[in-house]
Design brief:
single chain; 499 residues; mainly alpha; two-stranded antiparallel ribbon; 4 strands; 70% helix; binds coenzyme A; transmembrane; endoplasmic reticulum; retinol O-fatty-acyltransferase activity; Oat_ACAT_DAG_ARE
Length: 499
C-alpha cells in the first residue's frame, strides 16, 4: 500500500540531509544498532548498506511521484506556438503517397494504351530522311559566324578597322546568326520541328556568346587605351602567370582560335579572358554525369511517348469543341507528366550535361543554377533557375540599360521582352506558325511577379511559384500542340482518327 506520506514532494534537501549523516561518527543503523564509523571494514560495509537503504527508498518515492504527475505546461506539436519543426516523416509520407498514386497512374496508362515507347520514332523526330541531315549541316555552318567574329576582333585589335566599322560588321554578323537559321528552317521542308528547334537553340546560344565576346573585347580595348594614355605604355600586354600557376592571358593575346572555341564549347554565355579552371578531370565524376545524361534522356523520351502524347491526343477533341470542363480535366491530367518531364529536363541539362562539359573542359565555375525551388517570389525564380542566361542578362543588357539611366521597371521589362522574343523564336519557327503563346507566357511574368510580391508571402509565395510552373507550362503546350495539329494535319486521316 502506498502511504499518504509518499506523495510529499521529495526535495534535494531531504536527500542531502541523509547523506550528511554519513559524516557523523556514530550512526543509528536500520536495525537499531549503533555502529562506530571506525576503521573496521565490516562495520563500514554495514554502514554503507544502511545508508543506501533510505536513498533507494527516496528514489522509489520519487519514481512513484513522477508516475502520478504526468502533466506539464506545453503546446500541441502541430500548433505553431510549439516551435516543433521536424516534419521529416511527413515528407517521407508525401513521397510514399506520390509514388503510390503515380504507380497507379502508370498502371492505368499501361492497361489503357499498352507500351508506346519506341526509340526508332525518336530518330524520326530529328530526321525525315536518314541520308539528309539538314539540322546538323546548319550547326556546322555556324562556324562561319564564329570566324567572322574572331577576325573582326583581330582587325579591331590591330587598328586596321575602326570601332564604327567593327560595330557594323557585328550588327550584320549577329543579325545573320538569328536570320539565317530561321530562313533555312522555314524554307527547308526536310527539316523536322525537333531538328529545327535543336539548330535554332544552338544559334541562339551562339548569338548570346558572340554578343558577350564583342562587349568584353571592347571593354578590354577601352581599358588598355585608357591605361596607355595615362602610362604612355604599349597597347599590348604579355601573358602572365596566374596565382594558381596557369597562364593568364591578356588582351589581345586572347584573340586566338583556341580561346574562341574554348568559349564556344564552355558552359557559359559570358565571355572572360581567363575563366576559373579546375585542377584536373575527375574521371569518376565525368562518368557519373555521362551515365545520368544517358539514363535521363531515355526516361524523358519514354515518359513523353508513354504518358504525355496520349493525353495531348485525347485533349484535341475537347479543345476543338471548346468543352471547358473536359478541357480543364485534360489540362490537369497533363500537369503531372509535363511537370515531371520538366524537372527531369532541369536535372539532366543544368546538372548532368553542364557539369559533364565543364568537367571535360576543366571549366571551374559550376554555378549553373541556384535554389530556385525555394523561390517565394517570381523574381527570385528568374534570378536563380538559369544562371548562365541570368548572368548574361545582367551583364550585357540589364546593367548597361540601368547605367544609361533607364529605370528598374523599364530595364526589367526590356529583359523580359527580349527573353519572350527568344522563347517565341525557339517555338514558332520550328513549328512554322506564329501564335505568340510563349511570348505572352514570358511577358505575363511581369504582372505575376508584381502580384506575388504584393499579396503573397513565405510558403504562399512559394506555392504560387510552383503553381505557375505546374499549370502555366501545360497550358502553353496544349495551345501549341492543338494549333499545330489544326494547322498542319487538318486533312490527315490518321490524326482525325487519333482525335
Ligand atoms: C531582369 C533581371 C536581369 C533582373 O535581375 P535582378 O537580380 O532582379 O536585378 P536587380 O535590380 O536586383 O539588380 C541586379 C544587379 O544590377 C545592379 N544595378 C542596379 N541598379 C544599377 C545601376 N543603376 N547601374 C548599374 N548596376 C545596377 C545591382 O547592383 C545588382 O548587381 P549585383 O548582381 O552585382 O548585386 C532578371 O530578373 C532576369 O534575369 N530575368 C530574365 C530571366 C530569363 O529570361 N531567363 C530565361 C531563362 S529560360
Amino acid at each position: 500500500m502506498i502511504d499518504k506520506d509518499d506523495f510529499r514532494p521529495i526535495t534535494r534537501n531531504r536527500r542531502r540531509a541523509t547523506i550528511t549523516n554519513v559524516k557523523s561518527e556514530t550512526v543509528k543503523l536500520r536495525n537499531g544498532a549503533t555502529a562506530a564509523a571506525a576503521s573496521d571494514p565490516k562495520a563500514r560495509e554495514a554502514l554503507t548498506k544502511n545508508l543506501q537503504a533510505p536513498l533507494n527508498e527516496d528514489k522509489r518515492k520519487c519514481g512513484l511521484y513522477d508516475k502520478m504527475s504526468c502533466h506539464k505546461l506545453q503546446e500541441s506539436m502541430l500548433s505553431s506556438a510549439s516551435s516543433f519543426k521536424n516534419y521529416r516523416g511527413i515528407l517521407n509520407w508525401c513521397v510514399v503517397m506520390l509514388v503510390l498514386s503515380n504507380a497507379r497512374l502508370f498502371l492505368e496508362n499501361l492497361l489503357r494504351y499498352g507500351i508506346l515507347v519506341d526509340p526508332i520514332q525518336v530518330v524520326s523526330l530529328f530526321l525525315k530522311d536518314p541520308y539528309s541531315w539538314p539540322a546538323a549541316c546548319l550547326v556546322i555552318v555556324s562556324n562561319v559566324f564564329i570566324l567572322v567574329a574572331l577576325y573582326t576582333e583581330r582587325k579591331l585589335a590591330m587598328g586596321l578597322i575602326n570601332e564604327k566599322v567593327g560595330l557594323l560588321i557585328y550588327i550584320f554578323n549577329l543579325t545573320a546568326v538569328l536570320y539565317f537559321p530561321m530562313v533555312v528552317v522555314l524554307k527547308l521542308p526536310s527539316i523536322t520541328p525537333v531538328g529545327g528547334a535543336f539548330a535554332l537553340g544552338i544559334y541562339t546560344i551562339l548569338f548570346l556568346k558572340l554578343y558577350s565576346y564583342k562587349d568584353v573585347n571592347r571593354w578590354c580595348r577601352e581599358k588598355t587605351q585608357a591605361k596607355a594614355r595615362s602610362l604612355s605604355r604599349s597597347l599590348s600586354c604579355p601573358s602572365t602567370q596566374s596565382a594558381s600557376g596557369g597562364m593568364q592571358v591578356s588582351y589581345p593575346g586572347n584573340l586566338s582560335l583556341r580561346d574562341m572555341y574554348y568559349f564556344v564549347f564552355a558552359p557559359t554565355l559570358c565571355y572572360e579572358l581567363n575563366f576559373p579552371r579546375s585542377e584536373s578531370i575527375r574521371m569518376g565524376f565525368l562518368f557519373r554525369r555521362l551515365f545520368e545524361m544517358f539514363l535521363l534522356t531515355q526516361l524523358l523520351v519514354g515518359l513523353t511517348q508513354q504518358w504525355m502524347v496520349p493525353i495531348i491526343r485525347s485533349s484535341m477533341k475537347p479543345l476543338q469543341e471548346m468543352d471547358y470542363s473536359r478541357m480543364t480535366e485534360r489540362l490537369l491530367r497533363l500537369t503531372v507528366p509535363n511537370h515531371l518531364i520538366w524537372l527531369i529536363f532541369f536535372y539532366s541539362f543544368f546538372h548532368s550535361s553542364m557539369n559533364f562539359v565543364a568537367e571535360l573542359l576543366r571549366f571551374g565555375d559550376r554555378e549553373f543554377y541556384r535554389d530556385w525551388w525555394n523561390s517565394e517570389t517570381i523574381t527570385y525564380f528568374w534570378q536563380n533557375w538559369n544562371i548562365p542566361v541570368h548572368k548574361w542578362c545582367l551583364r550585357h543588357f540589364y546593367k548597361p540599360l540601368m547605367r544609361r539611366g533607364a529605370g528598374k521597371l523599364l530595364s526589367q521589362s526590356a529583359v523580359f521582352f527580349a527573353s519572350a522574343f527568344f522563347h517565341e523564336y525557339l517555338v514558332s519557327v520550328p513549328l512554322r506558325m506564329f501564335r505568340l503563346w510563349a511570348f505572352m507566357g514570358m511577358m505575363a511574368q511581369l504582372p505575376l511577379a508584381w502580384f506575388v510580391a504584393r499579396f503573397l508571402r513565405g510558403n504562399y509565395g512559394n506555392a504560387a511559384v510552383w503553381l505557375s510552373l505546374i499549370i502555366g507550362q501545360p497550358i502553353a503546350v496544349l495551345m501549341y500542340v492543338h494549333d499545330y495539329y489544326v494547322t498542319h494535319n487538318q486533312d490527315d486521316p490518321t490524326v482525325i482518327e487519333a482525335l
